[in-house]
Amino acid sequence: MAKENVSVTREEVVDSRIKVTRSTSEHEQTVNALLKHEKVDITRIPKGERVDVMPDIREEDGVLIVPVVEEEIEIVRKLVLKEELHIRKTRQEIPFEEVVTLRKQQISVSKDDNDT
């Protein structure tokens, strides 16, 4: 009785190679921006007015008014508006310039055919 056997083998063959390179370049660039700055001025306005209820915080002509009260003791307790804080905001725009370094990368892909 005769018997045949089969044997299979694999061989890896490289027929080409890929080369990837990356390079980085730098360049200077000026950044311009307009920065905003707010300033607050507080003015104390003495009042000395008697009030029956606590006054509300209010805004008049762009000025935030914060009432400050204290109690005075008499036979009857009453609120006295001692002062108001008038808070006015002013805006200022300030030019801003700075030189920054930016990086940029480039990719190059090339194929080398193998002579084997």
Care to describe what's here?
With 116 residues, the chain is mainly beta. It has a domain at 39-97. 0% of the residues lie in helices and 73% in strands. The chain is built from no helices and 4 strands. A 4-stranded antiparallel sheet has the order 1-4-3-2, with no helix packed on it. β3 (63-72) and β4 (78-113) form a beta hairpin. The protein is elongated, with a radius of gyration of 41 Å.
N-to-C series of helices and strands: EEEE
User: Helical content, roughly?
Assistant: under 10%
Mean pLDDT: 87
Gross morphology: elongated
Strand content: over 45%
Number of helices: 0
Distance between the termini: 44 Å
Estimated structural class: mainly beta
Characterize the biggest β-sheet. 4 strands, antiparallel
**Which residues form runs of ≥5 with pLDDT under 50?**
none
Strand order of the largest sheet: 1-4-3-2
Tell how many strands the DSSP assignment holds.
Answer: 4
Question: What is the assembly state of the chains in this entry?
Answer: single chain
Radius of gyration: 41 Å
